[in-house]
C-alpha cells in the first residue's frame, strides 16, 4: 500500500509539469496544423476560409522549396563534418598536459556562449567584409584580391560561422570521452610498437564513437532550424535560403500565414525523418 500510495503521490506532483509541457508543445503544433489548412492573409482580408491541401501543394511546388531543403541539408552536413573532425583533434590536444590548460579550455569553449546574431555580425563585419575585414587585409598582404565571402562563397561562409559556434560543444563532449579512455590500453599498445596513427584509429576512435553519435544527433536537431546567421549575413541570397528562412519569408514578408504554416509542417516532417535516421545510428552505436 505504501508503494502504491507513493506512486500515486508522485504522479499527482508531476501532473502539473507534464500538462504544462504537453500544452507548451501541442498548442503551437495544433495551431500550425489548423492554419496550414486555412487561407489566412492578415493584411489582405484575414481568414478567407478553408483551403484544404492548397497550401501544401503551393509550398512544395514552389521553385524555392527543393533548393531550400538542399541548402539546409548541405549546411547541416558541412557543419557536422567540420565540428566532428576539428572537435576530435581539439579534444586530443586539450587532453595533453600544457601550461594554462584550464584557461585554454575556457577560451575554446567560450564561443558557444555567444549569441548567434552577435557571432554572425562579428564574422560579417570584422572578418568577411571585402574592404575592411581581417581576411581582406590578409589577402591584400599576400598580394591577392580579397574575396567577397558572403556573395562568392556564401554557403561555405555560413558553414564556417555556424561551425565556429558549435565547435566548442563538440569539443567539450569529445574531451569528456577522451578523458575516460583507458590509459593502460594506450600504454600497452605503445609498448608493443603501435604507431600513433594506428593507436588513434584502432583504440581512440572506436572509444569516441558513442560521443560522436551524440554530438551528431544533438547538433542536427538544432541545425535544422538555423535562421539567425542567415538573416544577419545573406538574408537568404546566393543559395543560402534554408527551409526555415523560406517559411519566414512566406509568413512575415509575404504575409501568408497559411502557406507558412504548411511549410512549418514540412519542416517538422523533415526533422522527424532526420531524427529517426539518426536515432537508428545512435541505437546501433550504443548496442555495439
Describe what you observe in this structure.
It is a single chain. Helix 1 (2-36) crosses helix 13 (257-287) and helix 3 (65-94) crosses helix 12. By secondary structure, the protein is mostly helical. It has a domain at 65-240: MetI-like fold (Orthogonal Bundle). It has helices at residues 2-36, 54-60, 65-94, 101-109, 116-127, 134-141, 149-152, 154-179, 183-191, 196-223, 228-233, 243-253, 257-287; strands spanning 38-41, 46-50. The chain is globular, with a radius of gyration of 24 Å. A hairpin with a 4-residue loop joins strand 1 (38-41) and strand 2 (46-50). The longest helix has 35 residues, at 2-36.
Question: What would a concise description of this structure say?
Answer:
This protein is mainly alpha-helical and 288 residues long. The protein has helices at 2-36, 54-60, 65-94, 101-109, 116-127, 134-141, 149-152, 154-179, 183-191, 196-223, 228-233, 243-253, 257-287; strands spanning 38-41, 46-50.
Per-chain topology:
Layout: H1 2-36, E1 38-41, E2 46-50, H2 54-60, H3 65-94, H4 101-109, H5 116-127, H6 134-141, H7 149-152, H8 154-179, H9 183-191, H10 196-223, H11 228-233, H12 243-253, H13 257-287
Antiparallel strand pairs: 1-2
Helix pairs in contact: 1-13, 2-13, 3-8, 3-10, 3-12, 8-10, 9-10, 10-13, 12-13
Amino acid at each position: 500500500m505504501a508503494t502504491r500510495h507513493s506512486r500515486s503521490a508522485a504522479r499527482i506532483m508531476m501532473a502539473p509539469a507534464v500538462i504544462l509541457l504537453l500544452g507548451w508543445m501541442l498548442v503551437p503544433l495544433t495551431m500550425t496544423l489548423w492554419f496550414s489548412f486555412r487561407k489566412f492573409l492578415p493584411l489582405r482580408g484575414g481568414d478567407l476560409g478553408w483551403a484544404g491541401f492548397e497550401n501544401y501543394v503551393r509550398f512544395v511546388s514552389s521553385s524555392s522549396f527543393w533548393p531550400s531543403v538542399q541548402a539546409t541539408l548541405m549546411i547541416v552536413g558541412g557543419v557536422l563534418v567540420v565540428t566532428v573532425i576539428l572537435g576530435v583533434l581539439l579534444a586530443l590536444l586539450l587532453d595533453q598536459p600544457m601550461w594554462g590548460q584550464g584557461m585554454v579550455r575556457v577560451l575554446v569553449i567560450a564561443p558557444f556562449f555567444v549569441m548567434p546574431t552577435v557571432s554572425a555580425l562579428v564574422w560579417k563585419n570584422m572578418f568577411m567584409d571585402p574592404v575592411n575585414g581581417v581576411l581582406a587585409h590578409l589577402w591584400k598582404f599576400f598580394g591577392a584580391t580579397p574575396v567577397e565571402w558572403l556573395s562568392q562563397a556564401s554557403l561555405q561562409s555560413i558553414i564556417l560561422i555556424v561551425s565556429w559556434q558549435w565547435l566548442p560543444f563538440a569539443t567539450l563532449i569529445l574531451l569528456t570521452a577522451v578523458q575516460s579512455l583507458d590509459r593502460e590500453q594506450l600504454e600497452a599498445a605503445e609498448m608493443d610498437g603501435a604507431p600513433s596513427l594506428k593507436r588513434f584509429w584502432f583504440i581512440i576512435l572506436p572509444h569516441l564513437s558513442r560521443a560522436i553519435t551524440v554530438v551528431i544527433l544533438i547538433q542536427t536537431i538544432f541545425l535544422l532550424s538555423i535562421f539567425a546567421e542567415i538573416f544577419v549575413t545573406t538574408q537568404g541570397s546566393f543559395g543560402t535560403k534554408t527551409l526555415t528562412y523560406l517559411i519566414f519569408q512566406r509568413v512575415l514578408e509575404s504575409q501568408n500565414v497559411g502557406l507558412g504554416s504548411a511549410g512549418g509542417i514540412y519542416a517538422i516532417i523533415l526533422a522527424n525523418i532526420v531524427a529517426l535516421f539518426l536515432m537508428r545510428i545512435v541505437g546501433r552505436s550504443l548496442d555495439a
